[in-house]
Amino acid sequence: MYLRLSFTVALLAIVTSVSAHVDESELSLQVDRAFPNLRLRRPVVIANAGDGSDRLFFVTQQGVIHVIPNDPTVEETTTFLDIESRVVYQDKENEEGMLGLAFHPNYERTGEFFVYYTTTDAPHTSVVSRFRVSKDNPNQADPDSEEELLRVAQPYWNHNGGALAFGPDGYLYIALGDGGAADDPHRNGQNLETLLGSILRINVDRKDEGKNYSIPQDNPFVRHERARSEIWAYGLRNVWGMSFDRETGQFWAADVGQNIWEEINLIVRGGNYGWNLREAKHKFGANGAEQRDDLIDPIWEYHHDLGKSITGGSVYRGKRLPGLVGAYVYADYVSGRVWALRYDDAKKRVVANHAIPAKSMPVVAFGEDEQGEIYFTDAFGFIYQFGAATN
User: Fold this and answer.
1) Which of the chain's termini has less CB crowding within 10 Å, N or C?
2) 263: which strand partners?
3) Hey, what domains does the chain have and what are their CATH numbers?
4) Can the peptide bond before residue 276 be classed as cis, meaning omega within 30 degrees of 0?
């Protein structure tokens, strides 16, 4: 009994010591409806085209991309792309569908954008495709312009990942989950011979022989015989939300946990983030490893007492809310909580994790407009933004 009590006291002392260095005060912000007249079906991505038009694009999981002017009074959307007939989505298997959208960095010139979706032409199969905008209408894409870049068979319906983002280097990054089920039964997270459980990096402006893309020669596993050269980082379970800080270029990714822990990672070239040897910083399974020099710790984790499915966001670089600048905004889908996390890159640690007052809401996605203002959606199809608190 004495030993158990001593251990508990020591553990509490460590937790208190760590917590004392993290500011967990509540921010003086509020959550407002951004477009009160709009409601969408399962909006899972918010994006802008970066073309100076200030439009916002919303992807519904069923396979439709909507576009609106960035005007709070807007009353209806325009259908930018409708490929619902090509997309698999079922409420009972709700981790498939259209899950990713990214506009080419030179979209104004190329008219190209990229989507990630579960295709109807093969069971549990994800594709990444290139589409082009219509030549006659900037608010309408050409559904017949599809060019498939990548096709990945999934063993199960869940853990599809699906996030797409262009980095400051102009390359397309693609997040793939571990393939699904529970516990990563095929050990995909630690297997460099599969694309699953990884973040990929490809060049969409060139084509290698036999591919509709090329592999950058500085990818970390290009010269490894038993590794897929597309892989940039691995050991990930199911990234739901990844983004690049538009000021620093730092690469953020939120990885959904399984039993106990949710995590936030800073993604680096060749990084191994531990799944399924670890869940966040903690040993997972009989063959797990808590401490290993080649595994990269998340910069932040939280217990399932606080939430059970992280939704990754982005670092706020807008102008409307000066007190939020530099904070990484994220949420939890199950508990409905929203936070703003501050990471000190010089000290290599989180210095604040502020709660943002909000009614409990199942946040599905975050996104930015061209000015860096953050918007987010919930599972009921409403769109929100942050505002200064009013008394």
Assistant:
1) C
2) 255, 301
3) 34-337+363-381 (2.120.10.30)
4) yes
pLDDT confidence of residue 391:
66
Locate 190 and state its tokens.
């630690």
- Rounded to an integer, what distance in angstroms lies between the CA atom of residue 191 and that of residue 197? 8
State phi, psi for 189 to the nearest 5 degrees.
-60, -30
* pLDDT of 10 higher than 60: no
Nearest C-alpha neighbor of 245 from the set 175, 315, 313: 315
Chain-centre distance of CA 366, in angstroms?
9
Tell me the residue length of the chain. Answer: 391
Among candidate residues 33, 156, 23, 44, the one with its CA nearest the CA of residue 99: 44
Contacts of 349 (CB under 8 A, 6+ apart): 21, 299, 343
Residue 315 CA to residue 313 CA, distance in Å, equals 7
Single-letter code of the amino acid located at 319 = K
Give how far the C-alpha of residue 218 lies from the chain's centroid of Cα atoms, to the nearest Å: 23
pTM: 0.94
Cα–Cα distance, 71 to 68 (Å, whole number): 8
Whether 87 contacts 62, CB under 8 Å? yes
